[in-house]
Amino acid sequence: MKHIFFFILVFLATTASAKNPIISPTFDDLVKSIIGEEEYIFDDKNITIKVPSFADNPVQVPIYVDATKIKDAKRLIIFADLNPIAQIVDMPTTKLLPIFSSNIKVAQETPLRALVQDSSGLWHVGSANIHSNGGGCDISSQASQNSEFSKFLGQTKGQVFDKKGITRIKASVFHPMETGLIFGNTKFFVDTILIKDGNSLIDEIKLTPAISENPRFIFETKNKYTNLNILFKDNDANSFELKF
Amino acid sequence: MKKLISLTTLTVCGFAFEFDLKPIKVSENSYYFEGKKEYFSPSNGGDISNSAFIITKDSVILIDTGSTVEYAKQLKEKIKTITNKPIKYVINTHHHPDHFLGNYVFKNVNIYGTTYTLNEIKSHGELYVSNMANLIEDTAYTTKSLSPNKVLKEGTLKLNNYELEVYLYDGHTKSDVVIFDKNTKTLYTSDLIFNQRALATPHADLQKWIKTLEKLKKFDFKTLVPGHGAVAYSKNVIDENINYLTFLDNRLKNSVEEGLDTFEILSLDVPNEFKNYSLFTQEYERSIINLYPSYEKKF
Ligand SMILES: [Zn+2]
C-alpha cells in the first residue's frame, strides 16, 4: 500500500522531463525547503557525481561532483536525502567552477543530490546513491574526544595546482566538525570558507557539519589569481587562514 | 523484520550453514583450510580466510578460528576426522574478524594473541560481531567475541614439547604474527600474504608492510601458508605482494603530487597482473579511499 502511495506521488511529481532516478521519502520536502517553488529538472547527463561503491567508513565518505557540462552554472548545492543534517554545501559557481570534492558523513544508505542553477534560473538535479551501513552523523567526532585536539585546531594545509588552464585548489583544516547531535556535545564546525585573491573576495562557500572532521576540499577556477588565500571561519567565531 | 524472521527460522528449524570444509595437507602433521576468494556474503557464511592446524604428540595447535562460531564448530568437527587428539592451543594471528570470531568455540583452551591483538578484540570485538551480522546475516547470529587469554611473545613457543618460532611484525595491521614451524619448514604468514587475492588494507601501513615482506623472504621455508588464497612453495608469492604494495604506495604518492581527487586516482589504469587478483576492484577502491587521506596529510 505504502508503495502504491509513493508511486502515485512520484507519478504526479514527474513532468515530461526525466524522472527522479532515486526515490526517497524526503526529497520533495528538501527540494522545496531549499529552492522553494523554483523549477527543477533531473539531469544526470550533465552532472557527474562520484561516490564509493560501498562506503565502509560512514564518517569519511569521499564525494566528487562535476557539473561543468552546465556552462552557465550560477550556484551549486549538495544534500543527502536521508541525513539528519541533509544539506552539505552551498556555493556560488560563477568564478569557481561547479566542482566540489570533499568527505561527508552518512547516517544510513542515502541518495546524494547536487542542485545546480543555470543562468535562466532553472535548477538541474544530479543523483547518486551512497551504499553504507551508516552511523556517520550520530557518532561523536573522534577529534573532539582527543585531548591533544586544541593543539592542532585550525591548522591549515593546501596547495595550488595548474592544469591545462584550470587552477585547482586543494585545502584542508584541522577541525572536529561536531554535529551537536550527540547529547552533551555542542555544534562546532567550519560554516564558511572565503576564497580570496589578496584582500578581495572571490567566493564565499557555506558548509554544514555533514562534512567530515578535518575536512579537505577541492575547488577549481578558470580565472587567473595571483594572490590566492583562504579563510576558514567556524560557528564559534574562530577564523583560520591558509596562504599559498 | 527480515532479520527477525530468519532468526526465528534459525531457532525453530535448527538451521545451520553448511561450510563443507576440506582440510588440505601441508606436511605429515599439518593441514590448512582455504577460505573462498570472495568478500563476506550470506552465501559463503563468511568463510573467506584460511585456518591451519598442526598435530603434535598429544595435542592440536590451531592457527586462526575464522569469521563465526558456526564455522569454528564445523572446523573442530573436521579436525576430529583427521585426528582424535584435542585442540589444546589456539593462536590468533591478528585482530581482523575473519581470523578470530570463532574463538568462542575454544573458550576452555589456551588462546594466544599479542597484547595489541588482545586489547583490540577486547575493545572492538562486539562491534565486529554486529558488522559481521550485517554482512553475512544468519550464520553470524550465534557468534560471540572472545579475546585471547594468553599473551603471545616473540621467540620460541613450546607447546606440549612442540617448538614453534614466533615473529611479531606489522604492516597489514599494527601487530601481525608470523609462525615458522622448523620441523616441517612451514611458514604461516597470516594476512601479510594474500595469494592471487587483492590485499586488504583497512589498518595497513604500506611502507612497514613492504619492509616486513622483505624480512619474510629470508626464511628458508618449503611451504608458505598465506592468510588468504592457496599455499605457495616459492618466494614469488612474497614478491607479488611487494610489487602490489609498492604500486599502491607509488600511486598514492604520485597522486598527492599531482593534486588528484580520490575518484581521479580510481579512474587511472592499473597493470593487468593486479587486475587478475580476485576481489581486485573492491579492494583497490577501498585501499585508495582509506589510505589517500593519510598521504594527503603530508602535502
Ligand atoms: Zn586481516
Automatic annotation (TrEMBL), chain A:
<dbReference type="Pfam" id="PF08770">
    <property type="entry name" value="SoxZ"/>
</dbReference>
<protein>
    <submittedName>
        <fullName>Quinoprotein dehydrogenase-associated SoxYZ-like carrier</fullName>
    </submittedName>
</protein>
<dbReference type="InterPro" id="IPR013783">
    <property type="entry name" value="Ig-like_fold"/>
</dbReference>
<dbReference type="InterPro" id="IPR038162">
    <property type="entry name" value="SoxY_sf"/>
</dbReference>
<dbReference type="InterPro" id="IPR014880">
    <property type="entry name" value="SoxZ_dom"/>
</dbReference>
<dbReference type="InterPro" id="IPR032711">
    <property type="entry name" value="SoxY"/>
</dbReference>
<dbReference type="InterPro" id="IPR014756">
    <property type="entry name" value="Ig_E-set"/>
</dbReference>
<dbReference type="Pfam" id="PF13501">
    <property type="entry name" value="SoxY"/>
</dbReference>
TrEMBL record, chain B:
<dbReference type="GO" id="GO:0017001">
    <property type="term" value="P:antibiotic catabolic process"/>
</dbReference>
<dbReference type="InterPro" id="IPR030811">
    <property type="entry name" value="SoxH-rel_PQQ_1"/>
</dbReference>
<dbReference type="InterPro" id="IPR036866">
    <property type="entry name" value="RibonucZ/Hydroxyglut_hydro"/>
</dbReference>
<dbReference type="InterPro" id="IPR050855">
    <property type="entry name" value="NDM-1-like"/>
</dbReference>
<dbReference type="GO" id="GO:0016787">
    <property type="term" value="F:hydrolase activity"/>
</dbReference>
<dbReference type="InterPro" id="IPR001279">
    <property type="entry name" value="Metallo-B-lactamas"/>
</dbReference>
<keyword id="KW-0378">Hydrolase</keyword>
<dbReference type="Pfam" id="PF00753">
    <property type="entry name" value="Lactamase_B"/>
</dbReference>
<protein>
    <submittedName>
        <fullName>Quinoprotein relay system zinc metallohydrolase 1</fullName>
    </submittedName>
</protein>
<comment type="similarity">
    <text>Belongs to the metallo-beta-lactamase superfamily. Class-B beta-lactamase family.</text>
</comment>
